C-alpha cells in the first residue's frame, strides 16, 4: 500500500520542456472484480489519501502503475465503477449527461462511499428528475443519507389514498409501517366530523409526518450534512 502521490509518469521530456499547470495528468490502473480501468488519478487522491500511506517496498513497483500490479478496489462491482467513471471522465464533450436511473444510483452509491460531494449532488439532482417511487425513495434515502428523500417518501406514503402493501411494508420495515398508519389515522380523525364523514379520504392530504418521525429525521439530517 502506498500513497497515490508521486506515481512516476512514463513520458520522457526534453530538458527544455515543462509540464502544463493543470493538464499534465498522471494515471492509475484500478482492478475491480476481473476488469482493469486506467484513468487519471486526480479524482481519487483525496478519498484514498488516508488509506494509501505506506511507501512501496524497496525495488517494488508502485501499486496501480501497471496492468500487472493494479490498485485493487474491493467490495464494489465493476459496473458501478464504470458508471461512476462515465461522470468523472466523459469520453465525449459533455453537454447534457444522459443516463438511466439505475446508472445514476450506481454513481450515487460510490460518490457517497468516497465523498465525491459534487458528483453526489449531481446524482441526486438527476435521480430527482427521473423520478422515484415512494418506497424506492425511502430505501435510497436510508442507504445513501439523503434526508430530503426520507421526508418526501414518508409524506407520500402517509398522504396517498391507497394503503401500504405487505411487500412495501417488508421493504420499509414494520415499525415504520405502523407509524405511518398512525399518522394517517390521526389525520383522518382531525379532518373528519359527524357532519362530513364522507370526506375521510381527504384527511390523508393533511397527514404530517414531522412529529412522529422527528428523531429519525434529525439523525438523517445529521448524516446528510456530512456531504454538504
Question: What do these coordinates show?
Answer:
This is BTB domain-containing protein. The chain is mainly alpha-helical and 228 residues long. The protein folds into 3 domains: 1-11 and 23-75, no CATH class; 77-131, no CATH class; 141-228, no CATH class. The protein is 45% helix and 7% strand. The protein has helices at 45-48, 78-88, 101-113, 117-130, 134-144, 147-159, 166-172, 174-191, 214-225; strands at 27-32, 35-40, 71-73. Strand 1 and strand 2 form a beta hairpin. Helix 2 packs across helix 3, helix 3 runs antiparallel to helix 4 (117-130) and helix 6 (147-159) packs antiparallel against helix 9 (214-225). The two termini are 30 Å apart. The mean pLDDT is 84.
Task: Give the SSE map.
Elements: E1 27-32, E2 35-40, H1 45-48, E3 71-73, H2 78-88, H3 101-113, H4 117-130, H5 134-144, H6 147-159, H7 166-172, H8 174-191, H9 214-225
Parallel strand pairs: 1-3
Antiparallel strand pairs: 1-2
Helix pairs in contact: 2-3, 3-4, 5-6, 6-8, 6-9, 7-8
Protein name: BTB domain-containing protein
What's the pLDDT, averaged over the residues? 84
Domain count: 3
Order of helices and strands: EEHEHHHHHHHH
Low-confidence stretches: none
- Our measurement of the CA-to-CA distance between the termini, rounded to an integer number of angstroms, reads 30 Å
Q: Report the sheet with the most strands, covering strand number, pairing sense and barrel closure.
A: 3 strands, mixed
The shape is elongated
H/I helix tally: 9
Number of strands: 3
**From the alpha-carbon coordinates, what is the Rg to the nearest angstrom?**
24 Å
Give the strand order, joined by hyphens, for the main sheet: 2-1-3
Taken as a percent bin, the fraction of beta residues is 5-15%
Helix proportion of residues, in percent? 40-55%
Amino acid at each position: 500500500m502506498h500513497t497515490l502521490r508521486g506515481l512516476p509518469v512514463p513520458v520522457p521530456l526534453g530538458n527544455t520542456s515543462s509540464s502544463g499547470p493543470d493538464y499534465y495528468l498522471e494515471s492509475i490502473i484500478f482492478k475491480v472484480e476481473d476488469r482493469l480501468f486506467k484513468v487519471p488519478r486526480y479524482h481519487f487522491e483525496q478519498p484514498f489519501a488516508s488509506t494509501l500511506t505506506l511507501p512501496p517496498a524497496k525495488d517494488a513497483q508502485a501499486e496501480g502503475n501497471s496492468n500487472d500490479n493494479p490498485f485493487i478496489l474491493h467490495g464494489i462491482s465493476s459496473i458501478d465503477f464504470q458508471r461512476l467513471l462515465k461522470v468523472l471522465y466523459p469520453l465525449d464533450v459533455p453537454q447534457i449527461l444522459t443516463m438511466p436511473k439505475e446508472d445514476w444510483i450506481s454513481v450515487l452509491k460510490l460518490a457517497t462511499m468516497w465523498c465525491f460531494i459534487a458528483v453526489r449532488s449531481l446524482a441526486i439532482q438527476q435521480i430527482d428528475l427521473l423520478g422515484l417511487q415512494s418506497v424506492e425513495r425511502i430505501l435510497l434515502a436510508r442507504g445513501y443519507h439523503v434526508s430530503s428523500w426520507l421526508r418526501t417518501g414518508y409524506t407520500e406514503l402517509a398522504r396517498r389514498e391507497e394503503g401500504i402493501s405487505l411487500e412495501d411494508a417488508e421493504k420499509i420495515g414494520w415499525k415504520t409501517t405502523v407509524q405511518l398508519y398512525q399518522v394517517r389515522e390521526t389525520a383522518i380523525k382531525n379532518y373528519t366530523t359527524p357532519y362530513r364523514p364522507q370526506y375521510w379520504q381527504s384527511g390523508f392530504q393533511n397527514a404530517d409526518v414531522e412529529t412522529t418521525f422527528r428523531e429519525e429525521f434529525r439523525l438523517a439530517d445529521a448524516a446528510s450534512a456530512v456531504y454538504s
